[in-house]
Amino acid sequence: MTGSPDGSTGAPPPGGRPALARRLGTGDAVVLGLGSMLGAGVFVVFGPAARAAGSALLLGLGVAAAVAYANATASAQLAAQYPTSGGTYVYGRERLGPWWGFVAGWGFVVGKTASLAAMAMTFAAYVVPAAWQRPAAVGAVVALAAIGYRGVTRTARATGVLVAVVLAVLGAVVVAGLLGGPAVAAGAATGAGGGWYGVLQAAGLLFFAFAGYARVATLGEEVRDPARTIPRAIGIALGLATGVYLLVGATLLAALGPRALAGSTEPLVDAVVASGWVWAVPLVRVAAAAAALGALLALLAGVGRTTLAMARTGDLPGWLAAVHPVHRTPHHAELAVAAAVVLLVATVDLRGVIGFSSFGVLVYYLVANLAAATQDGAHRRSPRVLQVLGAVGCTVLAATLPLAAVLTGLAILAVGVGTRALGSARR
User: Fold this and answer.
1) Is the pTM of this model over 0.85?
2) Which of these, 57, 172, 380, 425, is most buried using a 10 Å CB contact count?
């Protein structure tokens, strides 16, 4: 892979291929991380989580945040040593071997491509009638792919605008919940039982909303001073998102109560209505659309960079490793990912893939923790026990996801591993 023998520098990729340009600072990286986390998930994931955990929803959120923190320290530590595109795909290959990297990269690319289609349809559902949703979703993917094609700094600027809109409206939802009248307090009095299994299942679902913090690591080849910038950006983005989720989760429980929250498909809309702020419903819908676009934009960049890394090593077709001579973006990879998303949007509705996506991401971070646990003292930034806890947490949360999500995730991984094995045998 790229880098010096110890992986500590960002040398050009092997085979004479051009590297991407280092244009992102800490602020840009934080914005991209927040854009990935504060996506459509925050507008929909609290309902399924409340069905699993009931009134213990916030405990599930705390478990998800703790596992995310352990994973973040692993990703930051690895990114400082291997500042190149690809994230855990690269780390798994370098520290554990090619098969480990492939499992992480395959699960990420396939799972997140499905998530991209789901986010595009979620965006369309908020802005146009049902008959126009597929064309609107396709148009959104094409427009955002065009932004990403022209450079990562344009991606960061556009994501920053969308994140600002989302944070402003989430703040309004919290204020509405705090100012809610007696009806709101009465709604909070009714509860639903969860149990430890429900808490863990809720944590696995809520992890879906945290998974974007390491998107910064997949862009490691485009960050200035990566050994310093990536760990800082990951920590800041994760801390900000955790605070936002805690405020929003507590507000939803107070405004709706666990039973109503569990039955809600639009919990933030229902919360402002319950608080008497009916006039804010259009704002919440606009924010949900903006959040979906922000996550789409940041995730298109992340999946494109992981695809680039897999193509450089032969795990995906070599033409996907091309770098645009002017914009210095992985233009073939980004166009291929966008085309796959457009095909999915045009043919199937994947808005129910939260569980499957969470499974793929948990496997991805399991590999990250195992890889970070092998790093020596010269590159160690956090105690090894954090990686052990992160690996155990990822395994437990993946195992307690809904059975359909686990089986689908295992099937997707099996298809990828089998295909790679056949290709290796032919070679």
Assistant:
1) no
2) 57
Q: How far is it, in rounded angstroms, from Cα 48 to Cα 45? A: 6
SS3 of the chain: the string is: CCCCCCCCCCCCCHHHCCCCCCCECHHHHHHHHHHHHCCCHHHHCHHHHHHHHHHHHHHHHHHHHHHHHHHHHHHHHHHHHCCCECCHHHHHHHHCCHHHHHHHHHHHHHHHHHHHHHHHHHHHHHHCCHHHHHHHHHHHHHHHHHHHHCCHHHHHHHHHHHHHHHHHHHHHHHHHHHCCCHHHHHHHHCCCCCHHHHHHHHHHHHHHHHHHHHHHHHEHHHECCHHHHHHHHHHHHHHHHHHHHHHHHHHHHHHHHHHHHHCCCCHHHHHHHHCCCHHHHHHHHHHHHHHHHHHHHHHHHHHHHHHHHHHHCCCCCHHHHCCCCCCCCCHHHHHHHHHHHHHHHHHCCCCCCHHHHHHHHHHHHHHHHHHHHCCCCCCCCCCHHHHHHHHHHHHHHHHCCCHHHHHHHHHHHHHHHHHHHHHHHHC
Spatial separation of the C-alpha atoms in residues 157 and 160, rounded to whole Å: 5
Tokens, residue 342: 């457009």
Task: Give the model confidence (pLDDT) of 311-358 as tens digits.
Answer: 988 898 888 988 878 777 888 898 999 999 999 888 876 666 667 777
Confidence class for position 190, pLDDT limits 50, 70, 90: very low
Give CA 353 to chain center in angstroms: 13
Contacts of 115 (CB under 8 A, 6+ apart): 299, 350, 353, 357
What are 293's two structure tokens?
A: 């676009």
> What are the pLDDT digits (tens) for 261-279?
888 878 888 888 888 888 8
Instruction: Please give the single-letter amino acid code of residue 278.
Output: V
Structure-block tokens of residue 365: 């971070």
More confident residue, 361 or 16: 361
Residue 13 has pLDDT above 60, yes or no: no
Percent residues over pLDDT 70 in the chain:
86
Cβ(142)–Cβ(338) below 8 Å: yes
- End-to-end Cα distance, the chain: 20
Residue 40 has pLDDT above 90, yes or no: no
